[in-house]
Amino acid sequence: MGRGLGLSVPLDDDAALLALSREHLEQARVDDVRHQVNYWHALQKLFRDACWDSANHSGFDGERFERESADWIRRYKDMRMEWGRLSEQREASSIKGQLWEDEFTEIWEAFWSESAGYRYV
After folding, report:
1. Three-state SS letters, 87-117
2. Count of domains forming the chain
3. Which residues contact 51 (CB under 8 A, 6 or more apart)?
4. I need a surface site. Which of 42, 79, 96, 104 has the fewest CB within 10 A?
5. How would residue 68 be classed by pLDDT, with cut points 50, 70 and 90?
């Protein structure tokens, strides 16, 4: 068991998020933790894709890592800026605003799924 947010949670990412949800934390806090976990897994994937792992004997490709991490950081920042810009403009209570939020959430989840790979939570 690890400790997070002052709670004892399992070390497995999926189990930890489930445990946090069961603790009846605000969904926004659980989503923040999930976001941070996916962010970390995305960075790990960038290193793995550039052959950081010891199983690959071809060596670490620093140029690939720099290129792909710069692209990933740009996309991440663009998505966060877009979310902030659009969320300021929308009316949360309107049906149109809710549809926009649902659509953007799907795009955001697809970004994390691609970025974190098999470790996506």
Report:
1. HHHCCCCCHHHHHHHHHHHHHHHHHHHHHHH
2. 1
3. 58, 59, 60, 61, 64
4. 96
5. very high
